[in-house]
Amino acid sequence: MSHALQDQRPTRARKSAAPDSLTRGGLPRWAPAGIAVVSTALGSGIGLAFGLHSKVQWGLIAALLFVGITYTASSVVENRRQAKDRVATSVMWVCFVLAVVPLLSLMWTTISRGIKVLNGAFLTHSMNGVTSFEEGGGVYHALLGTLEQVALATVIAAPVGLLTAVYLVEYGRGSLAKAVTFFVDVMTGIPSIVAGLFILTTWNLLLGFGPSGFAGAMALSILMMPVVVRSTEEMLKLVPNELREAALALGVPKWRMILKVVLPTAIGGISTGLMLAVARIAGETAPIMLLVFGSQLINGNPFEGAQSSLPLYIWEQYRVGSEASYDRAWAAALVLIAFVMILNLVARGIARWKAPKTGR
Predict the structure, then answer these.
(1) Residues 219, 193: contact at Cβ < 8 Å?
(2) pLDDT digit string (tens) for 23-64?
(3) In this structure, are residues 262 and 170 in contact, taking their beta carbons and an 8 Å threshold?
(4) What DSSP line would sit under 69-117, residue for residue?
(5) Where are the beta strands (DSSP E) in the chain?
(6) CA dist., res. 287 & res. 215, Å (int)
(7) pLDDT in tens, 262-273
């Protein structure tokens, strides 16, 4: 009996010592970074060896090598299951880098070229009395026009979009709600030039009004409304129904429940969607060209006379083709990016301030 137990002990020891396919040795923590460095070096070497002058091609070769080396190393050291998991992670990292690199390149180019003439004088002067080939001048008239036109478009589109989304989520039933949803989807894909032509036909030609910032703001509001409706609708759908039921169970009217419970709960997402809509219209040029016409003078009245805007100013300066106009165009582009970023920061601050407090 004792000999049988002694014979079984080595067998059990051998079984416990056998490597498990799910728990055997793994790659070190620095392996992804090391593989990335090796892949970058190999991609650059292959690009040089084959005479590929585009750095994009080098990057794509390095990305393919990164995924392939990761799978091979993980298969040898770990197992196929872990290798597939690492490949999926590697593909996500590659996609992330492919998305971030163009953005960083755009930001670097805009900052490096726009910072040349971006100063206090550039922000506080217009192009009045300055020819496009000369140095100097500023963007004040275009910045003022953009602020007024975007503000008017937001005042028009935000309430309409918000109330439409509330109707679709809280009240909309039947054919009318389906029709509203259909037309919102159609409006989402409307080109900006079509919105400009619509306002030009009705406001300018039919009613006889001249070019103004308000006409441009109406066209921008048409482009802004479907974005506000869709983003607000999705945020309202995320509000738990238990909150609605609890408020209604206490005898609160439905309109007050929406105003005091639903909207404050979704205010973070609503403000983010609103800023996305503002960013969507802040860079539009075609409606401004049709309805606002552009001006080198400072016009603080958006309801009368031609105005300018940052996108139109960038197009006008880049069209000239001189070195000074190129510098002004890049500086105006940097101002436009800063304008959108500031709006997003303000929206995040408002969302954090107005969001319901959790915990003690």
Answers:
(1) no
(2) 456 788 888 889 899 998 998 899 888 888 888 888 889 999
(3) yes
(4) HHHHHHHHHS-HHHHHHHHHHHHHHHHHHHHHHHHHHHHHHHHHHHTTT
(5) none
(6) 9
(7) 998 888 888 888
